[in-house]
Amino acid sequence: MMQEPQRLQYLQAMGLTAWVGRYRLPNAAETDVCAWPEEESETQAPSSRLQEALATTSHPVASSTVSDPPARRSGRARALLGTEDSEASGSPVALNESSASDRASLAEDTVENDGRVPLQTDSAYGVPQALRFSLHVAALEGRWLVVMPGGESPSPLMQRLLSNVLRAAGIEQGGSLAFQSFHWPMIDELPVHAPLEEAQDGVRAFIDGRRRSGWRLERLLLFGGEPVLDQVLSLADGHCTLLDIPAWQGPSLETLAYDPAGKRSLVPMLSRWREQWFRAADG
Question: What is the C-alpha R_g of the chain?
Fold first, then answer.
């Protein structure tokens, strides 16, 4: 277990300011007696202090997720600093093949990827990055979820085209659909451990919030697509696994607006939409 002076030394080496309570809070446990390190008389660069902390560590850091010996962990930390151990090399040097392998091994310990979505990582440290995508959603009478990928709201032309498509399928709307936007990640700079799963949880929570407001989703209509969003929604064989509802995916409205052949290819689907819409309403 890491002792308090050692923890403070690590924080100081990383350039972080540690604060210690001056007074004991009511009913607080007694503070362990320990030898506090004296203040350094000279200012050192954070990387130099961390090198010294790694070299003089007498207690290995306990971890529930990393089972490597202390020597390997300290070697990885040195690799992340951008230098190798001066005792092994004779003088500070830039990252070489050994440090690169340490960083790759560190990434293997902390990142899991099932191969469905290309994992986005920080090229400097191998740290996983959040998937990035945007979409706009609306619900036809709270029943059919209409999704359009992209960060821009549907234009009046796209709204009018969508209304015409639905009208051709016998689905009448009292006005334009009210689209709501969703962007992922919602907050930048947060740590990421499982990019795909965290993005799916975000979309699921967003849709569940609308369900609590009255949506009772029966089907998904996705106009257009993006590789990342398709994987997040888990579309396969006409089904959206993420939301557990039947799904249809076709050309974007921008494509349909200027593609007569695309509009003609949509005609057979409109009759099926009509049957599905009224069959569910009657049921």
Answer: 28
- pLDDT tens-digit profile of 66-79? 444 444 444 444 44
H or E segment at 248? strand 245-250
CA angle 175, 176, 181 (to 5 degrees): 145
Residue whose C-alpha is closest to residue 132's, from 215, 262, 231: 231
Residue 7 has pLDDT above 50, yes or no: yes
Bridge-based pairing of strands 219-223 and 245-250 is: parallel
Q: Quick count: other Cβ atoms within 10 Å of Cβ 77? A: 16
Rounded to whole angstroms, how far apart are CA atoms 211 and 126?
38
Whole-structure pTM value: 0.57
Nearest 5 degrees, angle CA 66-CA 71-CA 76?
Answer: 65
What gap in Å lies between CA 151 and CA 229, rounded to an integer? Answer: 12
Give the β-pairing of 219-223 and 144-149: parallel
Q: For 218-239, what is each residue's pLDDT tens digit?
A: 999 999 989 999 999 999 999 9
* Mean pLDDT of the 247-275 span: 91
* Amino acid at position 160, single letter: R
CA distances from 263 to 3, 164, 185, 238, 251 (A): 69, 11, 34, 20, 9
pLDDT digits (tens, 9 = 90+) for 143-165: 999 999 998 889 999 999 999 99
